[in-house]
Amino acid sequence: MPSTTTETLSLVDERKVSVAPLVLLSVVDHYNRGASTSSKNKRVVGVLLGQNDGKVVRVSNSFAVPFEEDEKDPSVWFLDHNYIESMNEMFKKVNARERLIGWYHSGPKLRASDLKINELFKRYTPNPLLVIIDVQPKEAGVPTDAYFAVDEIKDDGTTASKTFVNTASIIEAEEAEEIGVEHLLRDIRDVAAGTLSTRVTNQLQSLQGLHLRLQNIQVYLKKVLDGKLPVNHVILGNLQDVFNLLPNLSTPTKGKGESELSYALNVKTNDQLMAIYLSSLIRAITAFHDLIENKIQNRQQQEEKDAAKKEGEEKEKDGEKKVNGDKATNGVNGEVSKEGSEKKDDSPKDKKK
């Protein structure tokens, strides 16, 4: 491990931590079984398994570990070493690629005993990873915080001390895990939500996460200003780089007291609003045109139905008239034929007489 903070930070910044959804589900299940009904400050601890190639740390599996600590005295805690070793050997038999790469706890923040617990895990891996998984997140965003322990060199020349450095972490799933996660989210996802609403929701969550980070930066700078935390030039340098990327708002004015930046923003905003207005107007005209077309089609269909009904009634009337005429004709012909037959019958009798 590097002995200076600068070298260590350069190595930590290059690393990326990827956490599988299976690990999150396992930690939540561990918390619900062990600490959900206990005190609010009680946390659960477990071991992380995966692969570490130096640049990307892939956390693919985990298992729970018996852990107890005194809530009043953080220095008093117990961790079962034998259980860790036996479970690690069992997982090696199942998947030899998964190695012990670190540990986790349910946080939600770092605690005083975390450095000592991290030193204990150095028995199994040279640079253990600590992932704090918030099982009850109150803010939108990634519920994981990844840390590596580094040596902090102080400016006054005193003995170096250990501290945790945060590194970027993401939630990444394999294809089989993605199918399972989609199946679990099917019941809670709003199917009626369209693409636009989904994009707006994602942007809102991103802005909320950014706002939370800015609040953390503000709290940190306030503590440094009050003397509660030592000055860290690396962090201040990174903050200065962030401030240098911000746009320069103190640009010269361009008529009516507006600066060039605000004028450009107003022009761009007006163009966007004009595009939105035109699209809404076109949509309204299209909907109105469709409404008129629907009314015309409905009227034509109704007229066709009425014409067909009237034609059917006329055909029925013509059929009834024809039937009545045939009956009358048949009746007249019957009487005539009967009289003729009687005359024919009488004639031979007369002849015999």
UniProtKB/TrEMBL annotation:
Start-end of Basic and acidic residues biased regions: 301-325, 336-353
Annotated CDD domains: MPN_RPN7_8
UniProtKB keywords: Proteasome
Gene3D superfamilies, per database record: Cytidine Deaminase, domain 2 (3.40.140.10)
GO BP field: proteasome-mediated ubiquitin-dependent protein catabolic process
One Pfam family per UniProt: MitMem_reg
Coiled-coil annotated residue ranges, if any: none
Keyword Manganese attributed: no
Alphabetized PROSITE patterns for the sequence: MPN
SMART domains from the UniProt entry: JAB_MPN (SM00232)
Described function: Acts as a regulatory subunit of the 26S proteasome which is involved in the ATP-dependent degradation of ubiquitinated proteins.
Family: Belongs to the peptidase M67A family.
Name of the protein this chain belongs to: MPN domain-containing protein
Organism: Phomopsis amygdali (Fusicoccum amygdali)
Lineage of the organism: Eukaryota, Fungi, Dikarya, Ascomycota, Pezizomycotina
